[in-house]
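Why should sequence recovery work at all? Because a backbone constrains its sequence more than one might expect. Tight turns favour small or flexible residues, buried strands favour hydrophobic ones, and helices have their own preferences. The token representation captures these environments compactly. In the example below, the structure is given first.
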């Protein structure tokens, strides 16, 4: 349990930098920290990589929807979706297809 709490705390502390810069919201930082509590230490870096890749894909989808006129509001990117995709990719994808593991 101490390792899970320390992983979550480390991610929470590291997440204050992008939050302070205005890049992500506080809820996103807390969500990633909570997800890190369920992972092992070696999975934290892959979590960030997979979440960033999912966020990039989500960003491209949002851009395409805005250009096509199907998304008119200037809503911000719902990054919790990317976080959930990153966690799912890490936990489910790495067990289904072991070759996509980063570490």
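From this structural description, the recovered sequence reads:
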């Amino acid at each position: 349990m101490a390792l899970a709490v320390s992983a979550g705390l480390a991610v929470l502390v590291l997440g204050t930098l992008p939050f302070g810069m205005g890049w992500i919201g506080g809820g996103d930082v807390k969500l990633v920290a909570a997800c890190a509590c369920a992972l092992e230490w070696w999975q934290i870096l892959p979590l960030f990589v997979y979440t960033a890749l999912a966020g990039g894909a989500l960003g491209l989808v949002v851009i395409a929807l805005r250009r096509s006129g199907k998304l008119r509001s200037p809503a911000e990117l719902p990054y919790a979706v990317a976080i959930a995709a990153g966690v799912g990719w890490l936990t489910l994808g790495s067990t289904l297809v072991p070759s996509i593991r980063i570490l």
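A few observations help interpret the result. The chain has four helices and no strands.
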